[in-house]
């Protein structure tokens, strides 16, 4: 009687045993050429073990993905992931030194994704086995996304504040902060601040230095923000800081002084808010540039007091409706002399707009992110969350608004 070897399922003597004959793998069905003679034993499907099992559904992100060949050596492992927007990715992985085990380098599985695993193993006699499996991961009930400003590739003013508005309330703010990195070159200190549970802003201690390149690295995909609510974004955004332009509006004198890179380039007559409708004091940032827009008093609480369909050269300064804009309907003599607006800052213009007017001149030389500061108005200081007005908050108070309670250098993220 021939003495049997105790090596396991990959060994044999040329005669099929009852254990090896339980389940056979057809190599032809996998598109592989069979190695060895026709009567050589074939490796069984159990020779390659894949976790999660074939056809598994709702696998949690902390679930383990592994491919093993206990009685042989893995020759090839390919794992592809198709996410919920159809993007296909081939996962990187590590093979153990003995070739028995493969693990992905990513520690967690992606939510709402389909995984396909293809593996080929070979035993010591050169016989190959192949296996193909698929499984799907858990689909959460809610997904959150952060709508951010500024746009990728844009050039902005030195007062730009990076702001995120989330489509769902964020309960775990610390987790979301950890999923966002805001860095700058040259290096500068940057800190986040939460305004409620749907808005997160980032700014440096002082205005950005001209020429700074800022990067937003969003790693929010599958970040848990609350019960059954996970992020969906994974992308990188960059923008560049342009020249410095800070304009100071003196509401007592009805004059605006424009400084470019620290040098005064113009003094322009303006009209600010009339008594009872005074313009906010404080530092505001240009949020939006509109060559022409409609301004309707009913949208900002003034009823039917005005409705102008073609306001030219409009620069939005607050989300509540403060603009610095061209004014063609007022008499030229009021600019520099009379407070006549409902809180906006008006510059002389003509109907349809013209580059040759003070409003046209200023509009053409303005960027989103430029600073406009109002002084000597009888109105209160603009709230830090009204537009991009966070510069009105002291730095210590700004940093205290982080869920992680710590500032950081840009080289290490936020």
Automatic annotation (TrEMBL):
Task: Tell me where in this chain the L,D-TPase catalytic domain is found.
Answer: 245-375
**Pfam families membership:** Big_10 (PF17964), YkuD (PF03734)
- Name of the protein this chain belongs to: L,D-TPase catalytic domain-containing protein
Q: Which GO terms describe its cellular component?
A: extracellular region
Which residues are annotated as active site? 325, 344
Its pathway?
Cell wall biogenesis; peptidoglycan biosynthesis; Glycan biosynthesis
What Gene Ontology biological process does one annotation of this record name?
A: regulation of cell shape
InterPro entries, per the entry:
Big_10, LD-transpeptidase, LD_TPept_cat_dom, Transpep_catalytic_dom
Q: Record's superkingdom?
A: Bacteria
Keywords for the protein's UniProt record, in alphabetical order: Acyltransferase, Cell membrane, Cell shape, Cell wall biogenesis/degradation, Lipoprotein, Membrane, Palmitate, Peptidoglycan synthesis, Signal, Transferase
Q: Give the Gene Ontology MF terms in alphabetical order.
A: acyltransferase activity; peptidoglycan L,D-transpeptidase activity
């Amino acid at each position: 009687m021939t003495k049997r070897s105790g090596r396991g399922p990959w060994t044999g003597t040329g005669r099929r045993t009852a254990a090896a004959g339980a389940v056979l793998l057809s190599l032809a069905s996998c598109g592989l050429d069979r190695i060895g003679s026709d009567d050589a034993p074939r490796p069984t499907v159990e020779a390659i073990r894949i976790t999660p099992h074939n056809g598994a559904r709702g696998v949690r992100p902390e679930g383990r993905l592994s491919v093993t060949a206990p009685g042989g050596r893995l020759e090839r492992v390919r794992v592809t992931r198709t996410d919920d927007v159809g993007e296909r990715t081939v996962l990187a992985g590590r093979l153990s030194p003995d070739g028995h085990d493969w693990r992905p380098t990513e520690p967690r599985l992606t939510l709402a994704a389909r995984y396909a695993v293809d593996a080929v193993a070979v035993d010591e006699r050169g016989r190959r086995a192949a296996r193909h499996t698929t499984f799907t991961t858990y689909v959460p009930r809610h997904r959150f996304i952060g709508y951010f400003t500024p746009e990728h590739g844009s050039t902005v003013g030195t007062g730009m504040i990076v702001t995120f508005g989330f489509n769902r309330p964020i309960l775990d703010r610390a987790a979301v902060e950890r999923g966002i990195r805001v860095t700058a070159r040259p290096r500068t200190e940057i800190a986040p601040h939460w305004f409620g549970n749907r808005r997160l802003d980032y700014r440096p201690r002082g205005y950005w230095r001209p020429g700074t390149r800022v990067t937003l690295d969003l790693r929010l995909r599958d970040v848990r923000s609350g019960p059954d609510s996970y992020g969906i974004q994974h992308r990188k955004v960059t923008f560049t800081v342009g020249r410095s332009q800070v304009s100071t509006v003196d509401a007592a004198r009805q004059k605006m002084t424009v400084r470019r890179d620290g040098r005064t380039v113009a003094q322009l007559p303006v009209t600010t808010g009339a008594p009872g409708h005074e313009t906010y004091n404080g530092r505001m940032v240009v949020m939006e540039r509109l060559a022409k827009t409609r301004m309707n008093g009913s949208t900002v609480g003034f009823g039917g007091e005005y409705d102008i369909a073609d306001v030219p050269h409009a620069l939005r300064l607050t989300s509540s409706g403060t603009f610095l804009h061209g004014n063609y309907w007022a008499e030229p003599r009021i600019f520099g002399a009379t407070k006549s607006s409902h809180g906006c800052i008006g510059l002389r213009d003509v109907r349809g707009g013209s580059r040759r007017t003070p409003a046209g001149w200023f509009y053409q030389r303005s960027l989103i992110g430029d600073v406009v500061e109002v002084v000597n108005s009888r109105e209160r200081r603009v709230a830090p969350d009204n537009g991009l007005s966070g510069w009105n908050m002291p730095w210590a108070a700004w940093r205290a608004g982080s869920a992680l309670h710590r500032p950081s250098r840009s080289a290490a993220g936020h």
